[in-house]
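ok trying again, last paste got cut off:
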Amino acid sequence: MIQVHAKKYLGQHFLKDMEVARRIATSLPIEDKTSVLEIGPGTGVLTQFLLENPLINLKAVELDSESVVFLNQHYPQLNLIEADFLKMDLKTIFDDKFCIIGNFPYNISSQIFFKMLDNKDVIPCLVGMIQKEVAERMAAKAGSKTYGILSVLMQAYFKIEYLFTVHEHVFDPPPKVKSAVIRLTRNDVSTINCNEQLFKTVVKTAFNQRRKQMRNSLLPLVPKGNALYADVFFDKRPEQLDVASFVDLTNRIEAALKQK
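nice, full thing came through this time. structure:
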């Protein structure tokens, strides 16, 4: 039987603790028959618990060919797709909405969330294990030093819950940092009340110079001297603004740009 070796270039750290895997699997809010996509099943430690749940319609996507052979040998009932998740058209995987779950590689975890954001209308829920710092950043509230781009963009559309911390020793090989399991659940916001593309640009531009006041960090978007900057609102730093404030800011900037 083939053995799977963790590959550094893929960011692989295989979970070996069955209790942690069970906790992750049961963190999905499953009530009725639910389609679920597991990203990077590796050696199937999490997969086995998902397959046990009769309410889960499971598919898995795996890039590592060695893992694909292993999974096909040990879990022949698994609907396995050999592909790069980041390059997939997610709207073609299931006929309807689906949840995402996985022990995500650290090196692409942010990309996974941004892809989820681009497909938010078909993904109502995600449960994932990621680097602890990234989980804390995503769940952080305005005013926190860890609050940033990922926090604002994801919280605009999802409720974010930091579920539990996972220590290094439960992986093979053990990573150099702690991990955490996080749950994202789609909120009631279908569309935010502003230009969505400009909203993303404003958030990213503001946090690119997060130590500066907004009137300085936003200069790449709105030229110095614009009347917009007279408002004391722009004395603030980006981490002081919640999602609603960034929506308001985006509308102000769009109006200011139209007056050029």
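cool. The chain has a mean pLDDT of 90. The first strand starts at residue 14 and ends at 15.
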